Amino acid sequence: MNLNDPAPVRTTAEKFPDATYVPSSQDLWITPHVLAHALFVSGRAPGHRHRHGRSSTYEFIHRVAAMPAYLQWTRKGIKRTDLALELDPTEKGMLSYTLGQAMCQIFAEHLLSVRFFMHVSRYADAYGLTFPPGQSRADFFGPRYSGTWVVAEAKGRSGRLDKGTRRAMEAQKRTVKTVSGQVPEISYASAVDFPSKGGTMRLTAIDPEEAEPGAVDLDVNLDQFALAYYTPFLDAFAHQEPQLLGHYVVAGFDSVRVTLGLLAPVLQRIERAVRLEDTNGLYGDVTRLLDRYPTRFTRETATLYADGTLFAADWSHRPDLLRRESPQPDTEQMQRLHEFYRMVDVQDDPSRDEWMREEDWNWRSLSLATGALPGIFPPVDVTE
What does pTM read for this prediction? Predict the structure, then answer.
């Protein structure tokens, strides 16, 4: 199967409000690129470079490296490798936990129109948000394009989703009462499972209707939310030499065959907030920048995402690809590649002064990407 061909994940959605227009059953088509993006943005660790240093990057590499080791893409779906089937129950549980979190994010982005989907702990740890002792609460939250909030809890099962777990999901009460004073429009639990030893991965999502008596209120500042969301990218670029690819700042992680990137103007605005220790207006500035640089390509083919990020993964299991060194692209091919990842001509942008300041970090000083980037070129020529 070609690396870029997406694999179907049978998805069931139950008890969602009719107004959300979430299909009760459908296939989500997942590529390695989509999963790599979800693994990065759904990570729990806040990843503050001064608190964790390079460990933040290694934590991401640890989660991503598990995917090519334990998953294989087929035309029928995503299956576990023979190595995954030989794991002990605890190791299988950790794999299911990681997959459950990633697929929870994919569900939110693809079916609920959530642009920024973040682990509650990342925000809580960064800004001192505390919860009553013993009080349970959802794992993730994020705003929809409409401005309403979504909260979610992720589960994973190494075997079939049993009746007890399903009943618990159906009976589960909402654990977050409000976010920034607003009642979440959607609050769901999702679970990943494998119905049989050699079966393909499935996803089940259920939206409970009632809130727990002790449901928590999340006092969230949107500007601080934006900074917490993008902080892991600052860590990745701090510990890996970034390059410029079109309008994206990118870093390649050859050890796990992944390239990640962020739209340069967005990164520049985030850097300013960190440098000045001032997040005022950050969320609005970032969303305006993202609207100014619309993605012209589909997620499956172009590795670009609505949050302004770029993710590409090369998780082929073919031995010849694993042994072969990637050839270097020639000048003409690299020019086409840079053009492919260039959204608009920033120099001709009449509103440039609204978001760029002279004292800002100058992303144009970065060296241009001229060599092979994992998952982008080669072996896959996205410019075709």
Answer: 0.86
